[in-house]
Design brief:
By secondary structure, the chain is α/β, with parallel strands linked by helices. It is built from 13 helices and 10 strands. The chain has an 8-stranded parallel beta sheet with strand order 5-2-1-10-9-8-7-6. It has a two-stranded antiparallel ribbon with strand order 3-4.
């Protein structure tokens, strides 16, 4: 699969992971979409769950004080957007000309997202071993972005075997929020590329933007970062996200790295000829 299939002009697909940082508020979500577009992101990503399928009744009943009520179930339901909200998200993204898609956490959520003809689906790291979900995603025929966080190679092997490789991008990530630099292990990008012979992206959870830009030099085809309007906002994922100014700086650095990579050929540049004639004292080889 080629990133060009997403019909974007840039070589690198840059994804702002909105996730649940909208806090269940559609207007906040729209502000985040607008901000992501403004700073240069190509796509925004959400998360979609069927609450009663993804979580047990016991998990939902656990006490957890939050803006929506006293239980974990109140929180999970409060963060989940309705069909009407996604209709507006779809309309708004089309108006702004920015791609949107989501990570479905269950098979019913895949069917929900397919109503909107999203261009691809992202597999959350937590779902990599859900064979039923993976097969349902394959059946859509859409490009699949598969996150490898918290997984070992045998698990990834089994997941990759389910999909058609020409329709798959693996995303290296570490499921730490935030991820310390010494745990990021960017060299795993090459390991994944060599082992599976598919494009590889990078989903970063570190606090800085240098590491994600460095991943570009290692050949990734896409960068995904958790995105927030303000890390001081309420919410469990805000602290491991980057704000609009940081995203803008990251994109600038990504484009600079892209520009600097060249084609790998080694030769004397035309611009170097005059300098060569001036500085070379001896040419006896």
């Amino acid at each position: 699969m080629r990133i060009a299939d997403f019909e974007i002009s840039s070589r690198m697909l840059i994804i702002a992971e909105i996730g649940i940082n909208h806090n269940g508020n559609l207007e906040i979500a729209k502000e985040m979409i607008s901000s992501a577009k403004h700073v240069g992101c190509n796509a925004v990503k959400f998360q979609k769950r069927t609450i009663e399928v993804v979580y047990t009744a016991e998990e939902l009943s656990k006490p957890r004080e939050n803006p929506f009520g006293p239980t974990n179930g109140d929180l999970k339901r409060g963060l989940e957007f309705s069909k009407e909200a996604y209709i507006e998200i779809d309309r708004f993204c089309n108006e702004l000309d920015i791609i949107w898609f989501a990570s479905p956490w269950d098979e019913a959520s895949v069917d929900f997202l397919e109503q909107f003809d999203v261009p691809c689906h992202k597999v959350a790291a937590a779902c990599l071993t859900d064979a039923g979900l993976l097969r349902r995603l394959k059946a859509t025929g859409k490009p699949i972005l598969l996150s490898t966080g918290m997984s070992d190679l045998p698990e990834i092997d089994k997941a990759v075997d389910i999909f058609d490789k020409e329709n798959l991008i693996l995303f290296h990530c570490q499921s730490l929020y935030p991820a310390p630099p010494d745990k990021v292990n960017l060299k795993a990008i090459q390991t994944l590329s060599d082992r599976y012979n598919v494009p590889v992206g990078y989903s970063g959870h570190e606090l800085d933007t240098v590491i994600s830009a460095a991943a570009v030099a290692l050949g990734v085809v896409s960068i995904e970062r958790h995105f927030t309007l303000d890390r001081d906002m309420w919410g469990s994922d805000q602290k491991a996200s980057i704000n609009p100014e940081e995203m803008k700086n990251l994109i600038c650095n990504i484009r600079l790295v892209e520009q600097s990579l060249g084609d790998g050929s080694v030769y004397c540049l035309p611009e170097e000829v005059q300098i060569k004639e001036k500085l070379r004292r001896v040419n006896s080889i």
